[in-house]
Specification:
Chain B: InterPro entries: AAA+_ATPase (IPR003593), ABC_branched_ATPase_LivF/BraG (IPR030660), ABC_transporter-like_ATP-bd (IPR003439), ABC_transporter-like_CS (IPR017871), BCAA_Transport_ATP-bd_LivF (IPR052156), P-loop_NTPase (IPR027417). The complex is a heterodimer of chains A (304) and B (238). With 304 residues, chain A is mainly alpha-helical. Chain A contains eleven helices and four strands; from the N terminus they run ααααβββααααβααα. Chain A starts with a helix and ends in a 14-residue tail after the last helix. In chain B, strand 7, helix 7 and strand 8 form a beta-alpha-beta unit. The chains are: A mainly alpha (304), B alpha/beta (238).
């Protein structure tokens, strides 16, 4: 019981990270109908930018603890958003109106470019950091086993929920969000209403990348070690989460992320750690075979 | 005739290698209702879309209010006083009626309140259905929404593509009455594309007949209604 509760806590905090990245996949898919394969690497860039920010801030000894983390988070979001914007501008926009596979191939290219760029610029070795946030609470004891909720996990969960709340408000309540949804449902009509669709698509990439940056910061702080290749596996899992939740659905992305996080954690805890990725990807295959629209996705049927 | 609000000069539009419009020239004066009639595939919708820059005319000019808008991007054109209720209505199905209407005004940066009031006076049905998802409306209601949404931007020129298509005669009559009322009360200029030539020519001040990408006839609504060629081809020859 205590052991299961611990796994639940771990699974949720991991799932939040997947969910944040999955939103980027699902939003871009919703608006231009492509899978942005470079998105996992945008997450990796976000983690590296957080690392750089963290080292700058803490080595200066100016700040520590929560203030430092908030500053790191903000810096990483801004610069990662710039990367996201640039990738769209350089690699996808020129191919709009081209055949369907072109931007997909371009995305795979961008993924390789980003990985190699970080590998060259930052080196190929793994980068460890000192734990920044320590401490936590013991929720309950069961014999020798103590259920821990670390301050870091609390931070991940609360930050993610806060950012999701802001983001949900943005998409459902603001004119910008309305324009995004309009482009998603009928881009040509949106431009007939005077909406600058290219700009709206750029904004989508910017938002997706800044959410990935949040995930990158959280990943760095939680696991304390990153390298240029983390974007691949985490990216593919977040993509799995987006498909499981129903690609195109924002609540679906978060739900899918949580489920993938939980499945992976429980599988590792009760079966075998070595096969945790197999478990996650089996879910992808099962979803695609038996429920292609995902949990909250919709079949493309509209009343005419 | 006063200086035209919209003037299309020798416009040719292509879809790939197919020439959909072959040097079309028409003009619409302020306050006029002009209709464009023609068979399926004659290029009527293409002409309306070309005015909006999507697709862009390959040759010829589109002049709106004295300004050449041929090369402007679509969203610029639509912010400058032109609105379209397009073929197939194209309401945003997974948004509420209210949100669809707001989108009509949004890029103009104007207060949506007067537009909403006008929309609900014109089509009271929409007020009842404000919170409903547009995809669940009936065809006639969707058409009303598409027109109301176009009007939200307070356009000077309204482009209407087949507003009666697929609607029950009573509903289509209601929509034609709304257009007449708007034109009479606010002086709104309307360019109307219709297959229902009889109703369209009765409503319009002037009309053009488009046949496979070329204008073959023009005249007042009454004149065209009386022409035997028009009667045979578009009015079922009665």
């Amino acid at each position: 019981m205590a052991y299961a509760l611990q796994q639940l806590i771990n699974g949720v905090s991991l799932g939040m990270i997947y969910g944040l990245i999955a939103i980027g996949y699902t939003m871009v898919y919703g608006i231009i109908g492509m899978i942005n394969f470079a998105h996992g690497d945008i997450f990796m860039v976000g983690a590296f930018l957080s690392l750089i920010g963290l080292l700058l801030i803490t080595s200066g000894g100016m700040l520590d603890g929560t203030a430092a983390i908030i500053l790191v988070l903000a810096l990483s979001m801004v610069f990662t958003a710039l990367y996201g914007w640039t990738v769209e501008r350089v690699a996808y926009r020129p191919l709009r109106g081209s055949f369907r596979l072109a931007p997909l191939i371009s995305a795979i290219g961008m993924s390789i470019v980003l990985q190699n760029y970080v590998q060259v610029a930052q080196g190929a070795r793994v980068k460890p950091i000192e734990p920044v946030v320590q401490g936590g609470f013991t929720l309950m004891r069961d014999g020798s086993f103590a259920v821990q909720l670390s301050t870091m996990q609390i931070l991940i969960i609360t930050t993610t929920l806060a950012i999701l709340a802001i983001f949900t408000w943005l998409v459902t309540r603001t004119p910008l969000g309305r324009a995004m949804r309009a482009c998603e449902q009928d881009r040509r009509m949106a431009s007939l209403l005077g909406i600058d669709t290219d700009r709206t698509i750029s904004v989508t990439f910017v938002i997706g990348a800044s959410l990935a940056a949040v995930a990158g910061t959280m990943y760095l702080l939680r696991y304390g070690v990153i390298d240029f290749y983390i974007g691949f596996l985490v990216g593919v899992k977040a993509f799995t989460a987006a498909v499981l939740g129903g690609i195109g659905s924002l609540p679906g992305a978060v739900l899918g992320g949580l489920l993938i996080g939980l499945i992976e954690t429980f599988w590792s805890a009760y079966f075998s750690v070595q096969y945790k990725d197999v478990a996650a990807f089996s879910i992808l295959i099962l979803t695609l075979v038996f429920m292609p629209t995902g949990l909250l996705g919709r079949a493309e049927v509209e009343k005419v | 005739m006063s200086t035209p609000l919209l003037e299309i000069r020798e416009v040719s539009t292509f879809y790939g290698a197919v020439e959909a419009l072959k040097g079309v020239s028409i003009s619409v004066a302020p306050g006029e209702i002009v209709t464009l009639i023609g068979a399926n595939g004659a290029g009527k919708s293409t002409l309306l879309m070309t005015i909006c820059g999507d697709p862009r005319a390959r040759s010829g000019r589109v002049i709106f209010d004295g300004q050449d808008i041929t090369e402007r991007p679509t969203h610029h054109i639509m912010r400058g006083g032109i609105a379209q209720s397009p073929e197939g209505r194209r309401v945003f199905p997974r948004m509420s009626v209210h949100e669809n209407l707001l989108l009509g005004a949004q890029s103009q940066g104007i207060d949506p309140a007067p537009g909403l009031e006008q929309a609900f006076t014109l089509f009271p049905r929409l007020e009842e259905r404000q919170a409903q998802r547009a995809g669940t409306l009936s065809g006639g209601e969707q058409q009303m929404l598409a027109i109301a949404r176009a009007l939200m931007s307070r356009p000077r020129l309204l482009l209407l593509d087949e507003p009666s298509l697929g609607l029950a005669p009573l509903v289509s009559k209601q929509i034609f009455q709304a257009i007449r009322k708007l034109n009479a009360e606010t002086g709104l200029t309307v360019l109307l594309v219709e297959q229902n030539a009889n109703q369209a020519l009765r409503l319009a001040h002037r009309g053009y007949v488009l046949v496979t990408g070329r204008i073959t006839m023009s005249g007042t609504g009454r004149e065209l209604l009386a022409r035997p060629e028009v009667r045979d081809a578009y009015l079922g020859g009665h």
